[in-house]
């Protein structure tokens, strides 16, 4: 998960809509990322950079190894919870502590002062040795934004409509159509799976329904908010991840 700042989590999904979201390879390699990963039955909190080519660090095992090596960085370290949701709820101090542990582990390893103990206390993992899970396996809720995309062949600038259709009159059960208001819907948190997990579509294929997948930007939000302004919106964003709807 690409980290922006620390707030408590729920997830908002929306389709990727602009090429400006793409980053160069050099910039992407420097992005600090939080991950939830698994090697056995236990979920672990980890950190990496870029797409994980440099490997994943088990944060809590790194703390133990740094303590054993006498690393000063872990003295008076702020509390780091065991799972991502709790970490986000702790706030900036917890995330700053994770970054401290991550950088100290890399520095101590490079200097030869930290030797990976391996086994259950292993600190450094290659990406191929772990199973990446959803960054937040237990969000409070997941919102989707409907029709927040354009056709691949459509122009980047919104098309003009010289004769727009008149809005529908409101009824007792609906309101007039307003393109400026996004359409939200809830998705079940029980449907969240991790990277490379199996998506079962047997019944959809049997019924002849088309299968489709949507690469979307997931925005992790968790600071309680109501009627905030556009200028305040980014203060409520913890980070970003990729979502296949």
Give the overall silhouette: globular
Look at the structure and give the mean pLDDT.
Answer: 80
> How helix-rich are the residues, as a percent range?
10-25%
> What Rg do the Cα atoms give?
22 Å
- Proportion of β residues? 15-25%
Distance between the termini: 17 Å
In terms of topology, how is this protein built?
Layout: E1 2-3, E2 10-15, H1 25-29, E3 32-38, E4 43-49, E5 56-58, H2 59-68, H3 84-90, H4 92-111, E6 124-125, E7 131-132, E8 142-146, E9 183-187, H5 202-206, E10 215-221, E11 237-244
Parallel strand pairs: 2-8
Antiparallel strand pairs: 1-11, 2-10, 3-4, 3-7, 4-5, 5-6, 8-9, 10-11
Summarize this structure briefly:
The chain is α+β, with helices and mostly antiparallel strands and 245 residues long. The protein has helices at 25-29, 59-68, 84-90, 92-111, 202-206, and strands at residues 2-3, 10-15, 32-38, 43-49, 56-58, 124-125, 131-132, 142-146, 183-187, 215-221, 237-244. The protein contains five helices and eleven strands.
Task: Provide key terms for this protein.
alpha+beta; 6-stranded mixed beta sheet; 5-stranded antiparallel beta sheet; 5 helices; 11 strands; single chain; 245 residues; globular
What does this structure look like?
With 245 residues, the protein is of the alpha+beta class. The chain has 5 helices and 11 strands; from the N terminus they run ββαβββαααββββαββ. It has helices at residues 25-29, 59-68, 84-90, 92-111, 202-206, and strands at residues 2-3, 10-15, 32-38, 43-49, 56-58, 124-125, 131-132, 142-146, 183-187, 215-221, 237-244. It has a 6-stranded mixed sheet, with no helix packed on it. A 5-stranded antiparallel sheet has the order 6-5-4-3-7. Helix 2 crosses helix 4 (92-111). The radius of gyration is 22 Å and the shape is globular. The two termini are 17 Å apart. Mean pLDDT is 80; it is low at 14-23.
């Amino acid at each position: 998960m690409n980290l922006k700042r620390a707030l408590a989590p729920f997830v908002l999904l929306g389709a990727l809509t602009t090429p400006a979201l793409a980053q160069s390879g050099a910039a992407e390699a420097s992005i600090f990322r939080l991950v939830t990963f698994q090697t056995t039955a236990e979920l672990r909190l980890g950190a990496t950079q870029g797409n994980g080519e440099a490997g994943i660090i088990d944060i809590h095992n790194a703390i133990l190894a740094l303590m054993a090596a006498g690393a000063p960085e872990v003295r008076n370290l702020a509390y780091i919870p065991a799972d991502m949701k709790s970490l986000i709820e702790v706030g900036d101090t917890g995330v700053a502590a994770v970054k401290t542990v991550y950088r100290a582990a890399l520095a101590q390893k490079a200097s030869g002062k930290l030797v990976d103990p391996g086994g259950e206390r292993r600190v450094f993992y290659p990406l191929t040795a772990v199973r990446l899970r959803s960054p937040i396996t237990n969000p409070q809720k997941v919102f989707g934004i409907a029709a927040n995309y354009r056709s691949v062949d459509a122009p980047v600038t919104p098309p003009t409509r010289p004769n727009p259709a008149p809005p529908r009159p409101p009824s007792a059960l609906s309101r007039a159509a307003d393109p400026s208001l996004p359409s939200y819907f809830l998705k079940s948190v029980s449907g969240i799976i991790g990277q490379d997990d199996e998506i079962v579509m047997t019944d959809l294929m049997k019924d002849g329904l088309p299968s489709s997948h949507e690469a979307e930007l997931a925005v992790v939000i968790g600071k309680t908010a109501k009627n905030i302004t556009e200028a305040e919106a980014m203060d409520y964003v913890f980070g970003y991840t990729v979502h296949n709807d």
